[in-house]
Amino acid sequence: MLVIERIVAAASLAWAAALLLAQLLTAWGGGRKDYSVRAGSPGRAVLFNLTAAMAPAHKEAARLHPGKFAVGVALHVGVAVAVVEALVAMVKPEAAPLWPAAAGTLAALSVAAGLYLLVRRAVSRTLRAMSCPDDYVAAAVTSGFILAAALYGFGVLATSPFLIFTAVTFFYLPLGKLRHALFCPVSRVDLGRRLGYRGTYPTLRGTKS
Amino acid sequence: MSEKEQDESTAARVSDPAEVARMAREALRSAARGLAAYHFDACVRCGLCGESCHIYKTDPVPENLPGAKAAKVASFFRRYHTALGRIAPFLVGARALTPAALDELVEAAYGRCTACGRCGLNCSVGTDVGAIMRAGRNVLAAAGKVPPNLQAVVDNQLETGNQMAIPPEELRDTAAWISDDLRLEMGDDDAKVHVDEPGKRVVYLVNPREVKFFPLSLMAAAGVFHAAGERWTMSSRFYDVTNYGLYSGDDPAAAAITKQAVEEAERLGADEIVLSECGHGFRSFRWEGPNWLGEKYAVPMRSVLELLLEYVREGRIRVDPAKNPARVTLHDPCNLVRWGGIVEPQREILRRVTSDFVEMVPNREQNFCCGGGGGMLSMSEYGDRRVASGEVKAEQIRATGAKIVAAPCHNCADQLLDLNKKYRLGVEIKAVVELVYEALVL
Asked: Which of A124, B6, B171, B231, by CA, is between 20 and 30 Å from B163?
């Protein structure tokens, strides 16, 4: 049942994983030895940069733009749920649970968040100036993926088209800006480690103090 | 500077476009494995970084958005180091390293960014925009596109050992008359600026600005060292704490500048190198230098602020905060604090040597750049933008009601002097060591 679709989706996932791993290894380049003498705690700083530093108290971008921060959270929650659902559909489609009706609001918010970001990019002069086609494609693919997952979750969309949508999303993942799915946490680890090594991070103070 | 290093740092100043492009690509490849390696692929161009940038805040045009500036550098990375960038560059905004594209990058990398890194700490994703912008400067330096006035400073450092091309005799003369004044002020015939004395515990590196234009801070340091009973000296040949290779993006030159000062300290037999109040100098020597050289230093190194705090804590100097009664605020130089990790020593010192110390908001690692960083003070073509972008810092200062701004960086101090005039702040700009000297109880 759905063997071809499942294989295609799984192959697409393997492609994404392999390319992202290759990109990560290339960027790592065997590692960079730091010859300076350490002053702080890189481990604690990395933990800080992956947790508290992302909260509005520390991150100005989040504090000054609470609405857009919320939109971003909604979008990424939707993506996370859609990925889990895609994995279930790939491995054991018959086990994929139907979403409770209450999840409809959350799904709608998440899809709306994706579409809002797409429209905002097209409308804002500032964002348009710094955008390339990949920015629009990535937003469209992501919004479509969440929408497909939601429709699948509510039993409106069949497994087959959802798996095809999944395959397209995973295929595009390592090619454009969607690869920030990997490089966002990696960047936070890298920057946190460096600031911790030098003794700047972690800090208990927020940006207002 | 060795012949090989000289070749590496100047070879890019060639006129053959193909050779320029080759060198730029080579520098990009190297940068793609450097500090920016993980960050080229992280930015999602969300546009929320604007308020974190002093340049964008004072001139909110799309070109000043940190994400947009980083995107210009990343466009080259995508062209040569990503699959879609090679196959369909238009789709991912990838650009080839053409002479025109490089010329366009000069404005973004040198003229619209001080690489202060504040946007990176506040980035939605966690992208180190400062590292990306410096990668852009690496590429431009390799292509021989460093703005001429900035390059001239690097050349001075390589050719004469200091950025102002001050001859050793002038340093010795200045040291002699500062010593005369110091003896009079301290009433102690042993007080002096020590020069070229081997076997001392500390070799002190200063900003040549202190020798040429602002000797009070050198005199203050000499006075505090004397009061603490420190065994110290300067070199008349290599005493420059600055390193404009950090700003220009020329890593071989930065390595050579680092090497000459470190080797001089070794030659003098010092136990430790102490770095005067200089943000980028501290970052360059303390953190980047060993990696430019690819080896650990033989002589340990620290900021004079750490040493001053040690003096105060250990009771090697006695200070009276009542001697500095005016309200004092503190400027946090980006390269000293955010990228240098020297966050608290200057605060503890000021709390001990002044009686009315107030913080700016925001402060510490979240400080705003004064606008003079990134080599901006050397590039007169961006002078108007530099002073305009300093309005953010000026308003921070004004809000404190301070009469004195302690600026533990001579580069920042120069910018703050300009801001003081332009925005009529009515403040004095002083080095931390000057406030310590003024608080000394002899």
From this structure: B231
The interface residues of chain A toward chain B in range 78-117, judged by CB-CB distance below 8 A, are none
Q: How far is the C-alpha of A140 from the C-alpha of A143, rounded, in Å?
A: 5
Our count of domains for chain A comes to 1
**The CATH number of the domain where A49 resides is what?**
1.20.950
Look up the ipTM and state it: 0.92
The B residues from 76 to 105 touching A (CB cutoff 8 Å) are 81-84, 90-93
Are residues B14 and B60 part of one domain?
Answer: yes
Q: Which residues of B touch A207 (CB under 8 A)?
A: 122, 362, 366
Q: What is the pLDDT of residues A77-133, one digit of tens each?
A: 999 999 999 999 999 888 777 778 778 888 889 999 999 999 999 999 999 999 999
Residue A31 lies in a domain: no
For residue B127, give its domain range: 3-145
Rounded CA gap, A139 and A180, in Å? 13
Query: Residue B387 and residue B422: Cα distance in Å, rounded?
Result: 8
* pTM for the whole structure: 0.93
Domain boundary at B118, B145, B172, which? B145
Cβ <8 Å between A126 and B47: yes
Domain range enclosing A63: 3-21+39-198
Closest in B126, B296, B343 to A191, CB measured: B126
Q: Are residues B173 and B290 in the same domain?
A: yes
Give the CA radius of gyration of chain A.
20
Please give the Cα distance from B92 to B95 (Å, whole number).
9
pLDDT digits (tens, 9 = 90+) for A36-61: 999 999 999 999 999 999 998 888 88
A36 and B CB contact within 8 Å? yes
pLDDT value for B203: 98
Residue B169 burial (CB < 10 Å; 0-12/13-18/19+)?
exposed
Tell me how close the Cα of B368 comes to any Cα of chain A, in angstroms: 11
Domain boundary among B114, B145, B176: B145
Give domain status of residue A144, yes or no: yes
Q: What is the pLDDT of residues B5-18, one digit of tens each?
A: 444 444 445 668 88
Residues B37 and B103 in one domain: yes
Closest CA of chain A from B79, distance in Å: 12
B126–A184 C-beta distance less than 8 A: yes
Give yes or no: residues B56 and B124 share one domain. Answer: yes
What would the two tokens of residue B133 be? 């912008």
B99 plus B15 within the same structural domain: yes
Give, for A161, the enclosing helix (H) or strand (E). helix A159-172
Please check whether residue A153 is in contact with residue B113, taking contact to mean a CB–CB distance below 8 angstroms: no
A26 belongs to a structural domain: no
